Amino acid sequence: MNSSHRGLLFIPAGFFLLMLLLLGKALFWNQREIPSALLNRPLPEFSKPTLDNPNQTITAAGLRGDILIMNVWATWCPPCHAEHPHLVRISENEPDLVFVGVNYKDDAEAAGEFINTRGNPFAYILTDVDGKLGIELGVRGAPETFVVDREGFIRFKYEGAIDENVWQEKFVPVISQLN
Amino acid sequence: MKKQLKRGCRLVKALLLLISFSLISVFPSYAAIEELEFSSKEDRERYKKLTDELRCPMCMNSNLSGSDAPIAADLREEIYSQISKGNSDAEIIDFMQARYGDFILYQPPLNKGTLLLWFGPIILLLLGMLFIRKLFARSVNNAIAALSPAEEAQLQALLDDGFINEKTNSLKKSS
Hints:
By secondary structure, chain A is α/β, with parallel strands linked by helices. Chain A has six helices and seven strands, in the order ααβββαβαβαββα. In chain A, about 40% of the residues lie in helices and about 20% in strands. In chain A, helix 4 (about 110-120) links the parallel strand 4 and strand 5 (about 125-130). The longest helix of chain A is centred in the first third of the chain and has 18 residues, at about 10-25. The radius of gyration of chain A is 22 Å and the shape is elongated. Chain B is built from eight helices and no strands. The interface of A and B includes residues 1 and 131 of A.
């Protein structure tokens, strides 16, 4: 038996190891990190009334020109309660970004009271009572946060509550590339 | 008389309980569909097929029809309204895929990113078969080469003897 033949024996062993590695990766793969289908696509067109004034509507085109942090939230969502004080602080530290809230399938009165008592991190709050804008954005639940660049393209999406650590680790690198 | 009446009452109660329990187990699975009104039987079938085929985006392994997640309910409603509007199955699936990605399809589409997923197992099988063939071929070669000079002489003697030829001829005759 020559040595080149013996080397053949390592091929199945190598495949086995590769399979094991892939399986291990899949086991610890975070399902929150399924990439959004809308990544690098334009923000869908919409026209939604604001929470504080139902006669005022905001459109996707009207928001163009600024870097947007679009946060989908609701009073029925416990992680949104946890996230809120962090969002308030982050928005105070980032005056150049426009924070837009999407009040998702919520009761307007409860949402208004929530903002009045806990502070308002948002420049605008859109109401999405029937969740149609949520579907347009591919939202699976709340909270979800999108980063939209000045041209109106979605550059990043994060599912789950944001705090200062998440902001530094996930959002700051994306936003610094847009500037 | 009173005792018999009491016993009868108990029997009726037990029967009613049994019937109500059997109803509980039957109806909920239809409830989601029964609430909706479709203009035709085909539309109802399409609704059922689409909600069975599309995956709930919030869940790892549940279809839209089998999920209680709020987003699954919203997407069922979206499918219902699109069917009512007259959209085709392909249009509805494209709508979902554009917003929720390939994840919403149980059967992944064939593209660059999924080539390995589709053909990986076949390639692995072929490689395995090739490997086994190689292994076998080698062991056969080794067995032939392993005959000692004495054994080779014996084999040659048998062949010269016509022993093997006779044997095979007699076998052919008998069959």
